[in-house]
Amino acid sequence: MKLAGIDLTKLKRSFVCAAIGLHHVIATEQNMRLHFVVAACVAAAAAFFRVTSAEWAILVLCIAQVMAAEAINSALERLADRVSLEDHFLIKHAKDAAAGGVLLVSMGAALAGAMIFLPKVWLLLFP
Question: pLDDT tens for residues 32-57?
Fold first, then answer.
């Protein structure tokens, strides 16, 4: 079935595959589960401090970027392991670079979170 030139059957299949992939990453990757715990804590803090809509948008985008980076890192690691389970410096470099990408995105998210939450915590502690 098509709607405005879009094959809805293929689109549905794409979303199902994406959901399966996300489920697999959550089920198998400790770091992804940690990201979900941190995201829940951030959401709770955002609700507690009644952050603005713009701040919510920044937090949501940061959370999504970190989780997407982790999913991409996991996919690259799986592909690299499929290519060769033997130690090879190029595969190690690729895996390390992907993990470094997750670290960079996480550091940026942490900085954005600090910029949003630290002034609010300061005012709570020192009114």
Answer: 999 999 999 999 999 999 999 999 99
What distance in Å separates the CA atoms of residue 24 and residue 71, rounded to the nearest whole number?
10
Q: Provide the b/e sequence for 37-54 (b: ≥16 CB within 10 Å).
A: ebbeebeebbeebebeee
Please state the pTM of the whole predicted model. Answer: 0.90
Residues in the chain: 127
With pLDDT > 70 as the criterion, what percentage of the chain qualifies?
A: 100
Tokens of 110: 């942490």
How many CB atoms neighbour CB 75 within 10 A? Answer: 14
Domains, the chain, ordered by start: 2-125 (1.10.287.3610)
